[in-house]
Design goal:
single chain; 75 residues; mainly alpha
Amino acid sequence: IKPEDIDEFISVEAARYGASPDQLKQYYAQNPSLLEQLRSSIRENKVFDKLEDEVKIAELDKEKYRKFQEKKSKK
């Protein structure tokens, strides 16, 4: 996670709550456990974004899924 990722998150959250980015940075600086939670959340979002970009997801109705499973079990 880059410092820019944290800055971006803080800017968005500050705007959402009507605070300044500096106020929010100070809040997180005073609460290291919350800063670590923030980093974990950003990391999770980056992982899911990467997966979403690289993984093809196909939605199937019940019948198509059943046929897919039958075909798969014959292999």
